[in-house]
Design brief:
Layout (H helix, E strand, L loop, with lengths): L2 H8 L7 H12 L5 H16 L11 H10 L3 E2 L12 H7 L1 E2 L1 H14 L5 E3 L6 E3 L6 E2 L6 E2 L1 H12 L15 H18 L3 H13 L5 H13 L3 H14 L3 H12 L10
Helix pairs in contact: 1-2, 2-3, 2-8, 8-9, 9-10, 10-11, 11-12
Protein name: Tetratricopeptide repeat protein
Pfam families: TPR_9, Transglut_core2
Family: Belongs to the UPF0162 family.
């Protein structure tokens, strides 16, 4: 079983092996990554965290769990420009620095093992967590509580003041959605660090993990353009054209398609 197959197999388990799946994604980029070794390390971390948790009902332990992880050094990677290691789970476990999504996946794994109720929230720009039924969200980078006003402020910082907070922004994320978001993050990080082949691996995984967006086809088309694969680029541009309803985008896509070399067709 190759790393991609192992990653997808983690989604078929009950419960889903989310953190292990993230480790197999890292193994796709580095054959020296051994998920089993990282999972052994996680048992040690679980014991270290659990001994420091206060004597409270389980549904009140999510924030102390996040604060304990923060105290142990698991914090948001602030290095700029951000590097792919911020989204590779094996590196996050080693460095104790990562993107909010990776810190959230770590917290979710520990919470599951300790029977602490916790779920991921697919908030745009900054992945968040929530105790089911709570009136607030939790920042995986330290455990700060976020109420609706805080969420609006966070959204405005990420995207400007004109994007309103909606119920869609506060929906719980499925494991597959989290892995797809992780793959999109890695695609962007590898691309911005001039590693188009690694970004292509992530782009293909995005397509495999669930419903795709226009931007997913456009991102992969750009990678194929950089790699001088015009027919593959054409395939993705044509699919983006089928998906978009934006007339300006449709015009730009048609122009870009017109600039590609003609497709070679064989008659049999």
């Amino acid at each position: 079983m190759n790393p991609r197959q192992a990653c997808l197999a983690c989604l078929e388990r009950e419960p889903v092996a989310l953190l292990e799946a993230a480790l197999w994604i890292a193994a796709e980029h580095d054959c020296s990554v051994e998920p089993a070794a990282s999972l052994t390390h996680l048992h040690t971390l679980q014991r270290e965290v659990s001994t420091q948790l206060p004597m409270l009902p389980l549904n009140e332990l999510a924030q102390p769990l996040l604060r304990q992880l923060n105290a142990l050094g698991y914090q948001q990677d602030e290095y700029l420009p951000l590097r792919p290691q911020a989204a590779l789970m094996d590196k996050v476990l080693q460095r104790r620095r990562g993107q909010p999504l990776l810190l959230a996946i770590l917290a979710l794994e520990l919470a599951r093992r300790l029977s602490i109720p916790l779920e991921g929230v697919n908030f745009p720009g900054h992945f968040l967590l929530r105790v089911p039924g709570a009136d607030h969200l939790l920042d995986p980078c330290g455990g700060r509580r976020l109420y609706p006003a805080d969420c609006r402020e966070l959204l405005a910082r990420q995207f400007g003041p004109h994007l309103p907070l909606t119920a869609e922004h506060l929906r719980a994320a499925t494991p597959m959605q989290m892995l797809q978001r992780l793959s999109r993050n890695l695609r962007q990080l590898h691309s911005s660090n001039d590693n188009d082949l690694a970004a292509l691996v992530d782009a293909e995984r995005v397509m495999q993990l669930g419903p795709v967006q226009v931007n997913d086809y456009l991102a992969r088309a750009t990678l194929y353009q950089h790699l001088d694969c015009p027919q593959a680029e054409r395939f993705d541009l044509e699919h983006a054209l089928l998906l978009t309803d934006d007339p300006v985008q449709r015009l730009k896509l048609s122009e870009r398609l017109g600039q590609l070399p003609a497709s070679k067709r064989s008659i049999h």
